Amino acid sequence: MAKIALLIGVSEYEPGLNTLPSAVEDVKAMRRVLSQSEVGGFDQVSILKNPQPLEMQIEIQQTFSPSCKKNDLVLLFFSGHGVKDERRNLYLATRLTRKTERGDLIKAELEPTFNELNAIDRVQKKNWSLIFAPPGLAAIAIDKQQYVPIFPLQSLPNERSVIVVKQDSSVQNLSDLKKNKIIALGIPSSATGYYLPLYDLYGLTLAEIRFASNPKTILEWLDQNQVDAGVISEDEFQRYRLEFLAENEFRLDRQQLGYTKFRIIHKTRPTPSGVVLLSPKVDFQQKESIIKAMKQAHSSIVTDVGYLPDGKIPDYKEFIIFVKKVQLIDSKIREKPAALIIENNQ
């Protein structure tokens, strides 16, 4: 079994993205950890410092080439900017990534990673040995594929979603969302945008369920009366709500804190934090080596990657129950009307 790692650090960026002097230092520190026989024990550790986009793409493809054997451990580590497009797809920014005069990112100079929906397929096939998994993906990986959580990811404490309507809406609570009402959710498989709100909507029949690629779109649909209610994380709601006030309303908002065009009718349960997962294919010795290396990693690496080496791993038992119940009505969610009910024979 071979252990191969490709470490990429991008410190230099075009205008519009801040330089990251520590990125190249991160990969140097990671190489030292992985190369130590008693810690990482990797056979091959390659480094790319501020690579050109084509060079970066070729090296990634070659590292994950078909010549890799089934039991090989292959690691890709990236330190640099990550950016999202309007559909919330995540990209690795190269040294040539830049913005237009309007502040839009030029996607031709971005290297795409996987969004959560694409990642589920990889998890089901157990293609990944190590995953930095958001809650929705983590629940599926732990329950269905026996992935093992080893560290929690950094996250907002008690993060939850809210269901919001316009101030003048007749909807006062969840029971008012009936067959003639349309609701907007977030990306399927998201904890705050999909699983938790659908669990709380269970038993209702809605006229239609729509999906938005980003939270701001949900508020735009509400503002334009395209939907009757929308689901958004509580943090994102506080971030975007003031963008939908007229100038005179904004002055009022400064005097009467909390005023907005929208009103919260429901809050979901808190979502567990994401976790770092290890594949069940990783043997005990490898697992111990990975955990030791991640615990001993430099603080700058830990912060950039976003995990808590001494944090408590969240209990996923309850959340897995929510996810499994929502999966039972997956086929009904895109129907019109959408009856969020399990038939007796299911």
Structural notes for this entry:
The protein is α/β, with parallel strands linked by helices and 346 residues long. The protein has two domains: 3-155 and 273-317, D-Maltodextrin-Binding Protein, domain 2; 161-270 and 322-339, Periplasmic binding protein-like II (D-Maltodextrin-Binding Protein, domain 2, 3-Layer(aba) Sandwich), CATH 3.40.190.10. It has eleven helices and 16 strands. The protein has helices spanning 22-35, 53-63, 116-124, 135-145, 191-200, 215-223, 234-240, 247-255, 284-295, 299-305, 317-327; strands at residues 3-9, 44-49, 73-79, 82-84, 90-93, 110-112, 130-133, 148-152, 161-166, 182-185, 205-206, 208-211, 229-233, 262-267, 275-278, 338-339. The protein has a five-stranded mixed beta sheet. Strands 2-1-3 form a three-stranded parallel beta sheet, sandwiched between helices. α5 crosses α11 (317-327). The protein starts with a strand and ends in a 7-residue tail after the last strand.
